[in-house]
Amino acid sequence: MPSPRSFSRGRNPITYVLALMLCVGFYLFFFSSGGDSYIPSTRQSGGTASNVLSPPSLPFRKSKHNEPAQAPPVVHYHMNNVTTSRNPVENSETVLILTPLARFYQEYWDSLLKLTYPHELISLGFIIPKTKEGNLAITALQKEIAKTQKKGHGKRFASITILRQDTESPLQNQGEAERHKMENQKARRAAMAKARNSLLFTTLGPTTSWVLWMDSDIIEYPPTLIQDLAAFDAPIIAPNCFQRFYNNEKKSQDIRPYDFNNWVDSPTAKEMAAKMGKDDILLEGYAEMPTYRSLMAMMYDPAQEIGTKVKLDGVGGAVLLVKAEVHRDGAMFPAFPFYHLIETEGFAKMASRLNSESFGLPNYLVYHYNE
Amino acid sequence: MLSAPRQPAPPAVFHHHHAWRHDANFNCRCRFQPRSQPALRRRKRLIQQLLAGSSIILLIFFYFAPSYRPNLGAGPLSYLTSSEDADLETVRYYDLSNVQGTARGWEREERILLCAPLRDAAPHLKMFFEHLEKLTYPHNLIDLAFLVGDSKDNTLELLNEKLEALQANPDPKKRFGELSIMNKDFGQKVNQDVESRHGFAAQAGRRKSMAQARNWLLSAALRPTHSWVYWRDVDVETAPVTILEDLMRHNKDVIVPNVWRPLPDWLGGEQPYDLNSWQESDTALALADTLDEDAVIVEGYAEYATWRPHLAYLRDPYGDPDMEMEIDGVGGVSILAKAKVFRSGVHFPAFSFEKHAETEGFGKMAKRMKYSVVGLPHYTIWHLYEPSVDDLRHMEEMEKEKKAKEAEEAAKKERLEKINHQFEPKSNDWEKEKAQVHDLLQKEKAENANQPKEAEAPKKPQEKPQEKPQEQPKKEAEKPVAKKDVIHEVRGEDEKPKLQPVQ
Predict the structure, then answer these.
(1) Chain A contacts of B99, Cβ < 8 Å?
(2) Contact check, Cβ <8 Å, B76/A28
(3) Where are the domains of chain A?
(4) Is the CB of A32 less than 8 angstroms away from the CB of B340?
(5) Counting C-beta atoms within 10 Å of the first and last residue's C-beta, which end of chain A has fewer, N or C?
(6) What are the start and end residues of every segment in region (Disordered) (chain B) (predicted)?
(7) What are the pLDDT digits (tens) for A104-128?
């Protein structure tokens, strides 16, 4: 009988401590689980999903490998309570930042991290084409995500969704010059519109309050961007997109307007549209098509107040804050000529057909990458 | 093992034999071990007993006095999971080229999003869930999304109850995927009853707000994992259980079956129901050009004669159910569409899109984006028959008529009985007489005598009182017949409007 003997030999206090720990553990196991402090898994907006099958704008709890698969729960979303107010932080309103990612710029990511809006209320969504360039972009992006989304990282975002685009990009060469050729514009922007819509409608979910469209080549803006834009309480609002460059004439750093898709309509443009065929589109910023629209890019005046607001008829997608309900009502980026407009410009038109107006801030600047 | 004895035994074997003297732990048995002292052993046992006793007492105490249990938070497992964000998954990756939708989705495990907008739909939910449970498409691949808005009945509670029951199915294969209920009130003013739903004036506004509800539902429920989206009204009475596979097999971007509804016999037995699935006509295009920007053409009203070929009217009950027909407008009772259609931005216009809104506008927009939009004229599902006000009035009249008839019959019976009763002694006499006469007759017959007629005579007074009351119901019966025709004519115009899905 060696066992009782060896047991009695272990008179050192560790045995008792272990026994006590076992007892305490036992009590914990038996009694605490019956407590009523159980947190239901179906929490409201800004919460956490309990199943993989859930809106991508929410993080979810991983199920344990050894756990049997749970039946997905019935989840209620009280969309009457999803607000869009002037004080989004106070009301814990969630923001979905959507970016069609063609190239990854480190400055883009750094600016995102600098946003002062509570990161636990921000979800990110990316759509990336299946091209060589897209592969490069996704590698760089995932590296940054792995860093930021690490457990306990202070700037961690609520959730990040990465989509690979299903549609072929019509132009393999997305170089600056090629991209802006007029004949390429329609196909390019139609594909872009489809990408934007795919990203939007699969990530919007039932809990998002605001959608912030941000192009991947926007690299500089005030960290309070979201709060600043939301304070105007406009259905759709766009800051002015500029670009920093080295002015050879002045021999110094300078800024110049970049995004010409924010405009107020002109009678000339309307006339041109009326004469056009059903499938033709009006484009902005091309000498061969003078529309005489008032461009917000040209309205910048540093002497004026930063909060000056103008009503727009067409918007660009560089940076655009949209109330989620505008998209929910059906305002999307037409991939076909809609009133002779396409993509973001068509979006503004469709939103106005749905009684949501677009506004621009000519003196509030954000900066585009200089290629 | 067999080869072992043939080998010459190496000396090492002997070493192994030495090892047998050790125990399993390679401790030599012969080694000396001091015995523990009895005093120590006793103290040890005392402590053990104390510990065991106290733990049992505590266990019992806590068992019977739950309020004294230590508050230790949310369960022991919570220490592993809910330490804020330990096991939180925040990054998701999807490849949209995997969710394009193919003809045999059930084999490729393609997920379907089933959308149903609801409003005051409680009476139909039972039927709807029976349909759901019978669907043959793998249930775990179907995600259900409902939008409940402006409901005044208990739709929400009932829906929740039904869904919980669905998911509590012990067979995991019978459980569905993601289940979401969106709660959103749009403050619609239009009533949802059949009459106000189908008035012409209310149509444009009604269709636009229906479209809005559909868009909210879709944008909240569509996920990057969906290959298909299926829109289904809750008030479909009969549909094949294989409907998802049947429609999917055609591998079209947007596809709808034909929708009819059964009618009571006095209205002809059946009727085309969904008139929103149609092919565009030149007349309609010309008409569209004359209308102002915000006008909405609604099909099935005399106000807009479009002369479009309707899917519904092309039905042949014996036709090939796989026959396809290109259409431009679609009805919303049962639409199967590839999710990529919705992903690319096609939606239910809540504004006048090419002079159409909601599902018809959806068809138009899908066409605009070069998607295939197809209807199956000979593949029919049946919508629930909800009687219109006229129908109800008529049915009431028929009911009254029936009751009157019944009352009449009862009265007749009573009278008959009374007569029988009153004349019983006499009729008994007659019976006797009759029997006598009969005997006589038979005797006569036997004696080859003629004229048996006299024997029938006593029966006559019985029949007479019946005749008068019979005339009255006849007169009454004529009236409704005439009225029925009038109503039917009215229906011809009024019923054309397609019954709108109950939101």
Answers:
(1) 166
(2) yes
(3) 82-368
(4) no
(5) N
(6) 419-503
(7) 999 999 999 999 999 999 999 999 9
